Amino acid sequence: MKSLKYIWLSALAVLSIGMVACNDDDPYFDEDNAKTTPVVNKVYLEDVKSSVPDREVTYARLGQMIRLEGSGFIGIKNVYVNGYDTYFNRAYVSDNSMLVTLNAKTPVADADPEERNIIRLVKDGAEGVCEFEIRAASPSVTSVSNTLPVAGERVVVFGGSLQEVSKVTLPGGVEVTEGITSDNEDGEWFSFVMPSGVTEGGAIVAVGANGIAQTPDYFNNRNCMILDFDGAGTQGYWSWKEDGSMINADDLADDPEGKYGKCWQVVPDRLLAAGVPSGKPRVTECWTAGNDDTLDDWTRMTQYIAPETSLTKVALQFEINVPEPWETTGQIEIALINNYNWAGYGSDDRYGATYFYIPWLGTDAEGNPANIPFKTDGWQTVTIPLSELNKYKTIFNDSEAAVKPVFQDVIDERNNSSYRNFGMGFVNSDIEIAKGSDTFKFKSTAFNGPKMYVDNWRIVPYEFVVISDYPEDEEAE
Asked: pLDDT for 92-102, tens place per residue?
């Protein structure tokens, strides 16, 4: 049950909102109030979504609302948190309690040492100081540089509030405490060296200055491998010819990094030698075996990913290696089933269970589509939520669609198709991107490289979590 204090705060919230202002006729600023020293006895975290919505705490994070409890608050003109002049609303101030939201711009690591972890309450004739720990926002993860690294390889985890990471725990409980580096200024990444002996798949859990960060359960996760060109999964090919699009086993290349064994060279040397003409569809196509292969029934994956899982929480992953800049032309088309023309972004393929991977197509300073040359430093993981496949994306974007696709819908679509091969291929057609009333055109040109390599097609869990400071809240969700 909510505390009486919290009920009082809820009632107070319906009062009219007024800006903090100084008025000689306002009793808030009368002489007696201005000379009374404000004293903070306790600090509470206010969170209506929490199982404890008015919780006494010893620290709080940027963006959170806190309630100061004490005396002498009437008459406060300014609240400084770590030296930052923080807005507060007088409608939520009584003599014994007041609400303050910690502004996201409040300095934390770079705060003046004399002001860090200090809340200063200022009146015309008095002021009070409260020592209270201020932390950055909860750490979060957005991506991982390579989720299938080999031992000795450095892995970079990207996100926010990732300062001063001191311990990384990998699937199977393998701990890393040495060789960790962090972006301690902006908190946008940390990195570690992959140790030997990691045999399980799951999440990376990191402990840093701002708390615990966790990735989805996709690290070192091979449970739902589709095709790795080294024995996991079955490659299918037919009607192969010297100048044709089909990729067979002889077209596979040795991993240029010497880590993964065989891999798919997206445009093999036999086609690069003559160059790929501009405007050409179906330059290459690489497939799994198809209907007669039991691994192409993705029902096998439901022991790892529940069939009712939203497609926003399931992803396709693969590794790509582009040693030299790829720019201007070409796209990798990805198809859930073998039922498309392999004609690229501008074709009817765009309305199916397809995705077009065009990493050189970025945005300029004005947010417009632009050619941004793309290359990698070795192998890099690409993660595509299944909700981004064009057919499913249309449904997720439809606000009137009452039912959103789940993983079972993907399984059913594949199993009910005439050809359930999963595939990727290279297309060298023109691209047009609409933005508002403008259309941005990218005319294809002859493609003579660079060489590009892809490996390890797989389906992975893709649910992100933010670790609560208070575990009972996680249980209550």
From this structure: 999 999 999 99
